[in-house]
Amino acid sequence: MYYKVFKYYKVIYVAQLMRMDEKVNIREIQQKIHRDSMRDGVTEMLLGVLLLSSSLLYGNPGFTVLYVFTMILINKAMHHIKERYIHPRTGYVELKREDPQRTMGGILLYFFAVGLLMYLVLYVAEGALPSSDTLYRWTPTFIGLMFLGAMTYLREKTGSTRILAWGGYAIAVGLVFSIYGFASPRDGMTLYMLLMVISFLLVGGYKFRSFLTTHPVIKEIDEEQPVEAGETT
Prior knowledge:
Blueprint: E1 2-5, E2 14-17, H1 26-37, H2 42-57, H3 63-90, H4 100-126, H5 132-137, H6 139-158, H7 164-179, H8 185-214, E3 227-228
Antiparallel strand pairs: 1-2, 1-3
Helix pairs in contact: 2-3, 2-8, 4-6, 6-7, 7-8
């Protein structure tokens, strides 16, 4: 089994040359690539920044537009950080991208399904339409369920069950903040978002620093010379 690796600052392409009788689990290969791409902590750090920006922008008349614009900037920032710090250390493999419309459709479907279910549960519990204070009070739990959906999706992409710990953490903390009687229901949501931001930034920053320490920049190799799997250069 051989890999041909081209220099990272060009289009890095990894080709596996295998015998015809060798069985390959493509799904496992894809999951390993996705799993390796998340070990640097960049995803956690930028997710923390996204949560922080959404907290600051919440309530702004142009929230939706500003939130989408922020997501675009964060996506560009992720690509820049990856190209500047990660790819020179690990190389780069680009898998076939999923249909964005299908992915967004699944996200929206999950969002409305969870929101509708929680609304119905609150309606039954109170025997009347939930008030705005009630909705604010249970927003941390709703956000926790959204995190669980996102982490379940990443679990399928990476094959790692450890990533579900974020979903469990988000729901557990969300329930605590929803059940606890804050003076103002908005206080619970604000503190919840603050705690999640700090958690993601701390974990992501620690992983990123550890990654840079344990993964020095790789040396350039001859573009035409195959490198045998397991062999170091």
